[in-house]
From TrEMBL:
Family in the record: Belongs to the ROK (NagC/XylR) family.
Protein name: Polyphosphate glucokinase
This protein's record includes keyword Oxidoreductase: no
GO MF annotation, one: kinase activity
Keyword Kinase annotated: yes
Annotated Pfam families: ROK (PF00480)
Swiss-Prot/TrEMBL keywords: Kinase, Transferase
Length: 253
């Protein structure tokens, strides 16, 4: 019998979420726990919150952790919407020490990549070949790219330059909220962003994730793009599920 349960923690700019995951169903196994991201969101402060969540569930197995950063070999190489102290920081070692785990029992990866793994394994991307892009709309915009089902890790398409601006400063879900934009006002910003992405990599499918995917029916029909765009099936739990799956299977992008 294979591994049937795992644990994932998804670190975002506004909140840290974690919970047990049913790895056969690709869904949370019970309720998740959410704690506001500490400010400043230094590595040490965030590690304390991650430990609090893991200990709350009394989980003693492998743990998958996502960061809104480029992550290679467990080291964060960028910092989007978290403290710049993450840049160059060995996140895998930090979490392993704080969680009292062996380094090999902790997987740290980019948050959108984790969400993409979940969608390709259990959600809207199952069985999809060609170029599939997951875009997570939240505090910023995360991206995960898959070519014939294989992850191309650490793409940072949320930072594409669109009309002279960093894309996520115009089209992230947080911008909609901060500016009080209606769906009709926000959707053209997303359209323009996706149009630029389409001209660069010509995707076969775009999966829209993040918190706003819960209300996809209000804005996906407003997009004017040539690529099929569908809502993420796992909604805002995809990062947790993907992180848990990666840690259970020893996947290290």
């Amino acid at each position: 019998m294979g591994i049937t349960r795992g644990f994932g923690v998804d670190i975002g700019g506004s909140g840290v979420k974690g919970g047990l995951v049913d790895l056969e169903a690709g869904a949370l196994d019970g309720e998740r726990m959410r704690i506001p991201t500490p400010q400043p969101s230094t590595p040490e402060a965030v590690a304390e919150v991650v430990a609090e969540i893991v200990e709350k569930f009394q989980w003693d197995g492998p743990v998958g952790v996502t960061l809104p950063c480029v992550v290679k070999h467990g080291v964060a190489l960028s910092a989007a919407n978290v403290d710049k102290g993450w840049i160059g920081f060995d996140a895998q070692r930090l979490f392993a020490e704080r969680l009292k785990r062996r380094p090999e029992d902790v997987v740290v990866m980019n948050d959108a990549d984790a969400a993409g793994i979940a969608e390709m394994s259990f959600g809207a991307g199952v069985g999809k070949n060609g170029t599939v892009v997951l875009l997570t709309f939240g505090t910023g915009i995360g991206s995960a790219v898959f070519l014939d089902g294989k992850l191309v890790p650490n793409t940072e398409f949320g930072h594409l330059q669109v009309d002279g601006h960093d894309a996520e400063t115009r089209a992230a879900a947080s911008v909609k909220e901060e500016k009080g934009l209606s769906w009709e006002e926000w959707a053209p910003r997303v359209t323009r962003y996706v149009n630029v992405l389409e001209d660069l990599i010509w995707p076969d499918l775009v999966i829209a994730g993040g918190g706003v995917s819960k209300k996809a029916h209000k804005w996906l029909p407003l997009l004017e793009v040539r690529t099929e765009v569908v809502a993420a099936a796992l909604k805002n739990d995809a990062g947790i599920v993907g992180a848990a799956w990666a840690s259970a299977h020893g996947v290290r992008p």
